[in-house]
Design a protein that fits this description.
By secondary structure, the chain is mainly alpha-helical. It contains 3 helices and no strands. α1 runs antiparallel to α2. The radius of gyration is 39 Å and the shape is rod-shaped. The N and C termini lie far apart (124 Å).
Length: 117
C-alpha cells in the first residue's frame, strides 16, 4: 500500500506540474494574443492613413493634370494669337478660360462690366 501511495503522490505531483505547465502556456498565449491585437490595431490605423494619403495623391494628380491641360490650352491659344490666326471665337474662348481660371464669378464679372462701361 505504501508503494501505491508514493506512486499516487508522484502522480499528483506530475499532474500538478503538468497543470502548471498548461497554465503557464495559456498565460503566454494570452500575452501573445494581446500583442497581436495591438499590432492589428496599429496595422489598421496605418492602413487608414495610407488610404487617406492615396486619396490625397489621386486628388493632387487630377488637379495637376487639369492645370497642365489648361497650360497647354493657353500655349496653343497664345501661339495662335501670335501667328495672327485667331478668330473671335478663339479669343472669346481664351477670355473664358482666363476668367474661369481666376475663379471670377458671373456676378463679379457683371459688376466689373457695369463699372467699366
Amino acid at each position: 500500500a505504501v508503494v501505491s501511495t508514493q506512486s499516487t503522490g508522484e502522480q499528483i505531483v506530475a499532474k500538478q506540474n503538468h497543470i502548471n505547465k498548461i497554465v503557464k502556456e495559456a498565460e503566454e498565449q494570452e500575452g501573445t494574443l494581446k500583442e497581436i491585437a495591438i499590432e492589428k490595431a496599429e496595422y489598421q490605423r496605418l492602413e487608414g492613413e495610407i488610404n487617406k494619403l492615396q486619396q490625397q495623391l489621386r486628388s493632387s494628380q487630377q488637379m495637376l493634370e487639369s492645370a497642365l491641360m489648361s497650360v497647354d490650352e493657353r500655349r496653343e491659344l497664345t501661339a495662335q494669337a501670335k501667328s495672327r490666326q485667331c478668330t473671335v471665337k478663339d479669343l472669346l474662348s481664351y477670355a473664358h478660360l482666363i476668367s474661369s481660371t481666376l475663379s471670377f464669378s458671373a456676378k463679379a464679372m457683371a459688376s466689373l462690366g457695369a463699372k467699366g462701361g
